[in-house]
Amino acid sequence: MSEPTTNRLDAFDAYRAKMNARILDEGDHRGIKRFFNLDTAAYRDGALDGKTKELLGLVASMVLRCNDCIDYHIEQCMAEGWTEAELEDAMNVALVVGGSIVIPHLRHAVETVDLVKRREGAADDLG
Amino acid sequence: MSEPTTNRLDAFDAYRAKMNARILDEGDHRGIKRFFNLDTAAYRDGALDGKTKELLGLVASMVLRCNDCIDYHIEQCMAEGWTEAELEDAMNVALVVGGSIVIPHLRHAVETVDLVKRREGAADDLG
Amino acid sequence: MSEPTTNRLDAFDAYRAKMNARILDEGDHRGIKRFFNLDTAAYRDGALDGKTKELLGLVASMVLRCNDCIDYHIEQCMAEGWTEAELEDAMNVALVVGGSIVIPHLRHAVETVDLVKRREGAADDLG
Amino acid sequence: MSEPTTNRLDAFDAYRAKMNARILDEGDHRGIKRFFNLDTAAYRDGALDGKTKELLGLVASMVLRCNDCIDYHIEQCMAEGWTEAELEDAMNVALVVGGSIVIPHLRHAVETVDLVKRREGAADDLG
Amino acid sequence: MSEPTTNRLDAFDAYRAKMNARILDEGDHRGIKRFFNLDTAAYRDGALDGKTKELLGLVASMVLRCNDCIDYHIEQCMAEGWTEAELEDAMNVALVVGGSIVIPHLRHAVETVDLVKRREGAADDLG
Amino acid sequence: MSEPTTNRLDAFDAYRAKMNARILDEGDHRGIKRFFNLDTAAYRDGALDGKTKELLGLVASMVLRCNDCIDYHIEQCMAEGWTEAELEDAMNVALVVGGSIVIPHLRHAVETVDLVKRREGAADDLG
Questions:
Q1: Which residues form the Carboxymuconolactone decarboxylase-like domain (chains A, B, C, D, E, F) (predicted)?
Q2: How far off is chain A from D31, nearest CA to CA, in Å?
């Protein structure tokens, strides 16, 4: 049975999609559009594969303490196949580099992992 | 033939070793010593291998803009076998996440890669 | 017809006014009061005009990633007469300097511009 | 009479407790657990007493602009006996060091002090 | 008569040019090259003129506390015609937003303004 | 016997004094001068004594990772009578809050404590 209620991760995804459309489709700033393209390109397979780069993006987001960025990269990391144990190991690096000021974002990140797992579980139930 | 002159990376390594000895051997703060142990442990093989974690440490250091941390993690990354092309790909993620304010640290990082290669070349000449 | 419902920008304005009164009227810390005065003075006409300084304040707020500060400076910038295209050009500088970690704040900022425009539209309808 | 409704500080305390249990009790990452222990130990009496260290933690949290960390350290500081005037004096140092970008967090901190006082008042009424 | 000795600003310019050539000419990372192009483009005339954008870049660099970025943007700002009084007014905004932690960078910035003026004076003497 | 050679701390003190004179005596920006006054006032005895506030300033400087600010506050803290053990305990709080990215600044801070002690020893020898 699918989850009927919207959680904070679903709300973030919807807001992110709406505002990206506002910026990129309704807006016409060439520099901003190019930046978004460059950002997307940075996580494509290259000398490093995209999966590894998403993990780099997650750790960068955690030490810079941006919850929205953390949510986005956790979704990407889990879609790329990183396991929960591997994500926690990466989060530990972020925690040690960034210190206890990262702890609130660690709480957020762990909750986001749980929300993605619940979403995946709901999808399996529907399958 | 070995390089006779000391470059900035050799000077950093020597200063780092001297001050770590000052803090950990002469000093006796239990909390600080435990933190250093925890820091070392964070990069050991776990769910993720140590090689991957060093790359995470490098990207975290770049977006937080710490040249000493960048130097240390580049030395570790190259010892772990990451190639120059892979390091540049990781640096690109750091650059896109952290923005142009990272560029001075990218210059520093690329120079450090060159210094490590020169050091390795000198070691090969001695071999 | 005016908007009957309170949006997040109205809520921010009300909270900001309430807490500033709590700090400056009920509170009696001389240093804190002097800091608030100094902050206000920094955006008055000087060698640079106040309009330019508000744009500087906006970009500083974006690269330091403070949504409340962004909201305040967007309100001031639009009251000073900066156009939406000019604000986007300033936001682009902030995005390039600060990197993709600024993107969630860019989304917020663009939404705030839209909220101020809606507020202005409502005021026109009432005029 | 006790406050029947849950305020944002109560909600934070509950979320913090729930997620810490999720990370430390359900989770099994040794490095993360060690970090939490190290964090707790840093505020115990040592060469400096725990009361002084909590004030250091508050100022560090304010200049790094983390509202959750601010809430936690204000609760600890007030439990340790720091007066409101002393907390404001510490907040002033944080404001001057960190600049106007700290102001939204000063608003939050002052509100948290008020929430803790209200909570203490409610406890007295129940006593 | 021109200054015969190299000062720190000349040394920075030379290092910056050398390492940018190393990264962009010898290097071949497409993402990094695109980022440098995007960075350059962000300061070109648009809805805002390039002169205004350089001032935005200076303030962003000061609150993010990057001396190399400060040096670069001061050189650009002075070439664009901003006066010393105007630059100080912009620096004051950065100081108030960023706090006393910006003061060491304010010292650096004021010294850089003096170095550019001395350089310009030397050029005039040669004219 | 006094130390004949200038160390990095003496050089910092001299540069700081020279540039502060440049900014405050030669310069005439009223906002900048007021900020410097406000900064000085923040560390005077108030609800908290000046000695405690200097320790707050040190921890704030360490988590924000500013070596010049660290040097200044260590000099002030030691003049106020904080012992080396107490300073290390404060540094430990900064290290845990700010993470391993603070370690290079911890090395710097410990070296500065040693330089101040050497300076005090030299003064004693002259007494």
A1: 33-111
A2: 7
